[in-house]
Structure formats: structure tokens, C-alpha cells
Amino acid sequence: MTLLFIFNISFFNQLILSLFIAFLIVFISYRLKFLTINGSLATFFLAGIIFSLGGIKWSVPILTFFILSSLLSKARKKKNENVELFFEKSGVRDYAQVLANGGIGGVLVVMNFLTQNDFYYLLYLSSLSAVCADTWATELGTWKKTETYNILTFKKVEQGVSGGISLIGSFGALLGTFVIAFSGVFWINMNYIYYFLLIIVSGFAGSIIDSILGATLQLQHECNICKKITERKIHCGVKTNYYQGFYWIDNDVVNFIVSLAAPLVIIIFQNI
Ligand SMILES: [Zn+2]
What we know:
Helix content: 55-70%
Mean pLDDT: 91
Structural class: mainly alpha
Bound molecules: zinc ion
Number of domains: 1
Low-confidence stretches: none
């Protein structure tokens, strides 16, 4: 039944329209330097799948995340460029970042399409809520100089260091979860307030997991010149030294785990 659906005219129209919109968004994003070349390709595929299989209700939340986060990232960069030196990558997103943030969403839209089970939509919103919380925590938390503490030891750390949390960053995380919940919850046909809260709580839990992983397992280096802890392999023009974490757990791996963790929080919650 579902597979027959692929061949009918309205689906074909939706597919063409989806690919067209995906192309337009990617083209503009590339011109505005939101995406690298391989990031553009990944976004085109991912957006094409989500738009065509999910239609408007799956498209609005991820577009809300993508557009607002890209603008926020650009604005923050203008305001506080120094903090960029801590991050492994600049604000221009590459394919690994795109898939780390939206890959799970892509899998969930396919699952929903094949099973026609709306539970996957709730998981999707939860996953987006977590990646949005994580992104906005970083962007707002590094917007201007603010006190930042290690999430586990509560010792003061440099702003922008993985595992660091601040008041404004936590507010950013919460705001991110609200925006995603608001962008998608009205397509769930019952118990808005319950699901709204579930998306916020699971997303915020995701951003806490993100900070804990950042403080523990994520790869970090130390600069030989300025002694700062950074995700970068090169700092102050020289190669950095290993500081802590697993070599294969970079920021993208952490983001991917977070995008998976938030839906798991929902699954556990629903089964209690
Ligand atoms: Zn340095």
C-alpha cells in the first residue's frame, strides 16, 4: 500500500516540489556561507528525503532549526569571533555536521513513511529539540563574555570549552527546545501540552548529555603556546597536544549521540 503510494501523481508532484525547494535552500545557504560544498550536498539529500516523504509537517521544524541556527551562528560570529578558536570547525557546516544533526531525522522520516506510525514524528521533534538546544546553548553561551563552569566539577573554565556551561547558554538550550516544540507540536493531534513538555524535557536532557560527553569522552587538545584547551588540532599557528578524550569522539560524534539520546529519553519515558 505504502509502496504503491510512491507511484501516484500527487507523490510525484510532492517529490519534484521537495527537490526544488531543497535545491533553493541549499543554493542560498551556500551563497550565504552557511554550508560548505559537501555540506550543501548532504543537506540537499537530507532535505529532499525529509520534504518529500514527510511533507509540510516534517519540513517546518527542520527548516526552523536550520534557518534560525544559521542566522544565529552568523550573528554570534560577528559579535564574538575569538571564541571560534576553541571550536574544531567554523560556523560553515560540512557534511559531517549536517548528518550528525539531521541524520537521525532522516531515518525517522523513512520509518514513519513505511509504517505510517506518528510516534516517529514525536521522536523526530525530540531529536531536533536536542540538536537545537545544543546549537543554541553554544551560540548564546558564547554571544558575549560570561562566567562558564565545567558541568561536572563546577570549576571555572574558559568560554567555549567543551563541557562548559553558563546561565545564558542554558537559557539558549531551553529556548531552542521551545522553538522546535512550538514549530511541530500542533501537528500532533492530541495532548499538546503533554507532548510540548516531553519535547522540551527530552531536548534539554539531550543538551545536558552533550555537555557531560564534552567534559569527559570528547577529544580535546591543549595549545602549546597559550595553554588553552581546544577542539582544534592547530592553535596559535602550531600543532596542539592531546589533552583528554577518545580520538574518534569529536564534536560531530557527540552531536550524533545527542540526536539519538533525546528520542531514547522519550521511548523510556513512554514505557515507564
Ligand atoms: Zn593557542
